[in-house]
Structures are given as structure tokens and as C-alpha cells.
Amino acid sequence: MLLWLRTLNNSKTDLPVPGVLAVYREAWAVLTQEIEFHDAEDPDELAKTGEALVSKYMEEAAPRIDPAAVEMRVEGVIAGVKVAGYIDLLDVNGCVIDIKTAKGRPSSIHPMHRFQVATYRYLTRLAQGSGRIDTLVKTKSPQLIQQPFSVGEQELRAIHTIYPIAQALMRGEVHLPNRQAMLCSRRHCAYWRHCEQKWGGEVPQT
User: Fold this and answer.
1) d(Cα 128, Cα 199) in Å, to the nearest integer?
2) pTM
3) Which of 25, 80, 108, 147 is most buried (CB neighbours < 10 A)?
4) Residue 58 and residue 10: Cα distance in Å, rounded?
């Protein structure tokens, strides 16, 4: 989805959908030359799905967003740990908007999504404590699910607690499996066989 976000930088999000789709198609053509697709993936079908999701977002969400920044890099120190990332969208009211795609309609906000937005909230002085997860659902008729929430003391406490623990584990070369992670699957991880051999259990298919 970030292929087309760059076109929104420093402008209102009322760009014509055909123009944004043209930018998306150009970026997709370049991307397909640089990556290797999974055997079960059809690049043409993926391209069509991407276009449908782009259209959905531009038609329903973009007209109501006044962006202050797009794909903005943020960095800083949280509890002694250097952290960096990219904010998908930050509106003029200081709301951090993170865009996701999913196969099914989300029933709640994933804890790691809250953690991610809380990190961005802490690292940028432009953010005002509000966040929103915009999920584009890849159903036959694409859906847009918007989930606003406040970044409160509990979310900020979590990032100050977890980052130092993660850093300590990495420095100690302790890499525990996280089978609940969003990208933990045989499809997305090339090391799933090694993970099963070392830790046991079963890595999800997708």
C-alpha cells in the first residue's frame, strides 16, 4: 500500500483516483522486477487486488485526511534503546494513521499495532496522542475498516518496558520463537524449518 502514499506528501488527499492508480502501476512494475514471488502467488492477481484496495482507500478515506506528513521517518531513544521507523500518515491534528491489509475483517486492534503506533507517538512531537488503524480487507468486495484509539499511559508504559527486554535478549543472542507474530508463517519466513527443528511445535501455514 505504501507504493502510492508518496504521491500524497505535502498535499491534500483529493488527488484523482486514476492518477494515483497510474503511479501505483508504475511502482508495481518496478517492484516486480526486484522481488521473487511465492509459487502460490499470481503477480497479476496481486496487482489487481492492490489496485482495488488503492481505489477503496482513495475514494473513502483519503478525502477526509489532511496530511501533515506521509511515510515520515522517526527515530529516537526509548528507555535507553535506539528506535526508528516510518509513520504511514500523520494528519494535521496529530493523529498517527497506520495502514494495514488483511484477509479478514478485524474484530479488534492487534496489540502489536497499538505498540507500533505508541512508538510513533512517542518519537514525534507532532503527534497528539491519538491513533488510527485503517485496515483494507482483501475480500471479493474490498472493505475499509477504521479503528481509532487513544495512545494512553498503558501503551506508553508497554514500549518503555518491552524495548529494553527485547534489546537484552538480542544482545544475549536469545531468539525465542513468536508463533503469534503477524509474519510468523511458512509463507513469510524462510527459516520456519529451522525454527521447528530447534524449538518444536508447528509454524502456521499462512
Assistant:
1) 42
2) 0.83
3) 147
4) 16
pLDDT tens digits, residue range 82-99? Answer: 999 999 999 999 999 999
What's the grid cell of residue 93? 491534528
Domains parsed from the chain with CATH numbers: 5-166 (3.90.320.10), 177-206 (no CATH)
Residue 71 burial (10 A CB sphere; 0-12, 13-18, 19+): middle
Residue 132 half-sphere exposure, CB side, CA atoms within 13 Å? 17
Please provide the distance, in angstroms rounded to a whole number, between the alpha carbons at the two ends of the chain: 20
Residue among 103, 98, 123, 101 at smallest CA distance from 113? 98
Residue 204 has φ and ψ, to the nearest 5°, of -60, 155
Q: 25 near 4, Cβ under 8 Å?
A: no
Supply the pLDDT for residue 190.
84
Dihedral pair phi/psi, residue 96, rounded to 5° = -85, 120
